[in-house]
Structure formats: C-alpha cells, structure tokens
Amino acid sequence: MAPTDADELAALAEPLYAGTVADFVTTRDALAKQATASGDKPLAAAVKKLRKPSVAAWAVNLLVRREHEQIEQVLGLAESLRAAAAALDGDELRQLTRQRRQLTSALTTTARARARQAGTRLSEPVAEQVEGVLTAAMLDPVAAEVVLTGRVVSAFTSTGVDDLDVAAVVAVPDALGVRAEPAPDDGEGEDDAVPGPPALRVVVDEGARLAAAQEALEEADEAVRAAEAEHAEVEESVQALDARRLQLQGEAEELRRRLAEIEERADQVDEDHEEAQEALADADGVLREARESQARARRAVEDLERDR
Which of 156, 142, 150, 155 shows the shortest CA–CA distance to 172? Predict the structure, then answer.
C-alpha cells in the first residue's frame, strides 16, 4: 500500500479504533459502505480487512486518546531515559528500571479507571497485558510509535533488542506516522499530570485512584477466597498423605523385621549347608574306602574259588 493510501486508511479508521470493541464491526461496515459509496472500492476492501482489537489493545488505544498529553510526555521521557541508560552503572540501571515500572504501573491504573468509566472492567490478566504493552513502549521506540497510533490490535511485549513485528500488532502498519487524535475533555476529571524526570511519578486523579483501588480490593478478596479454598483442599490432601505415610512406614517396618528374620534364617541355612558339605566330603571318603575293601574282598573270593 502506498504511503498516501495508508495515511488515508489510517485517518478513516480513526473513529473505528476510538470506539468500543462491541461497536467495532458495525462501525467498520459503515466505513466500508462510505468508501464504496464514494467510488473507492480498494479503500472499502482495505477497511473491511481492519482487525478488531483485543480488550487489552482497546484499553491502550483508549488511554492514548483520553490521556494523550500524558502518554506523549511519558514516552518522550522514556526516549531520554533510553539514551541515558548507556552511561549508567548497575545500581543506577536498577533504579531506572524501578522508575520505569512506577510509570507503567501508574499508567495501567489510569487505563483501568478509564476503561471502567467506559463501561468495561479490565481483569487482572488483561491489565497485565496493558502494562506489558506500555512497558514495551517505554523500552522500544518502534513500540512507542505503535502505541501512539491508537490503532493497537493485540497485546505485545518488546525489549527493544529484537525487531517488533509491527504488522501483527497494529492496524495500517504502513502509517505509523498517523497518530491517534486526542479525545475531547468529557469532564470526568482533570488530565493526569506527569512530573519531570527527577520524580518520575504519575499523579492520577483521586476518582480514578479510588476506582482502581476498589477494583483491586475486589480482586484481592476473590483471590483470598480462592486461595483459602485451595488451602483447605491442599491441607486435606496433606492429612491424607500423612495417614498414608504412617501406614507405609508401619508396613516398611514390618517388612524390615521379616527381612531380618529371613536373613537370620538364611545365615543358619548357610551354616547348615557348610556343615552338610563337610559331612558329605567325609561320607565320600568312607564310601570310597568301603568300595575299595569290597573290591579286595571280591578278588580274594575269586582267587580262592579258582584254586579249589
């Protein structure tokens, strides 16, 4: 696809990826019909091929539009941090990593709050995917460009070492320069502020922080209940295994006792066998002498009978 055509498709797809996942197919069909009506069948076909985003990708796209200025500030700061990382020692790099995690964690909290305001609750696994994408954008400049388009279609990770498969994670990959349009202020709260590099903290509005904290509490409660149930099940298994272990220990002790008896009997049989072997040797000698005496006596009788 030519750059101009790709840019046109990306611009046409803006309302598609700015909307909800539930409305995606309907909106895509409407945009395709619009392109067809204008006589641009190739564009209509390209629109029909646009992929529906996953929930995590939708949350990232929503965050980019609702917190556009903050995202650009954070990713701009990340670019500076990447450039500075080469000159840092081990301790400084670890500190930098902690600061990056603080930023991505704060952005993920904001993403969860924005998604909830839009009527979608992000599960913990989905939130982890969102944080993975944001971390990738902090580490990889190409991933940052993907995120800023607001057309992410699937969650991804990247460390900036290997090349990111852009075509697999973003709609209209040939138009990375076409960025998402900031959403108008909906009055739900002031924009989150990102301090400068020394603090590296994201200030989240109290409503979003409270909503995220409540959601985290609910998930923690569910996790505790699940852990308690699993603990009870494992404890029952441990008790059963303890009983089985004691039983097997008793059986093993009985087998050891029987083995000792058998070994003792075997030793006695060995002794008896040795004595029997000695007796057999003595009997062989006696038998041999008796046969020799018998042979001599027979010859004597035969000699006397011949002389008669």
Answer: 150
Burial 238-249 (b: 16+ CB within 10 A, else e): eeeeeeeeeeee
Two tokens, residue 192 = 């989150």
Are 217 and 259 members of one domain?
Answer: yes
- Pair 244, 151 in one domain: no
- Round to whole Å and give the CA distance between 114 and 207: 10
Question: What is the domain range of residue 176?
Answer: 3-204
Domain count along the chain: 2
Nearest residue to 74 (alpha-carbon basis) of 198, 158, 170, 195: 195
pLDDT mean over 196-208: 43
According to DSSP, the residues that pair with 170 across neighbouring strands are 152
> Is 307 within the bounds of a domain?
no
Smallest CA-to-CA distance from 78 within 18, 6, 140 is with 140
What is d(CA 18, CA 190) in angstroms, rounded to the nearest whole number?
20
User: CA 188 to CA 213: how far, in whole Å?
Assistant: 17
Confidence tier at 198 by pLDDT (50, 70, 90)? very low
> Does residue 229 sit in helix, strand or coil?
helix
Confidence of residue 81 (pLDDT cuts 50, 70, 90): confident
- Dump pLDDT digits (tens) for 12-45: 899 999 999 999 999 999 999 999 999 999 999 9
**267 has pLDDT over 50:** yes
Is the distance from CB of 111 to CB of 70 less than 8 angstroms? no
In a domain, residue 249? The reply is yes
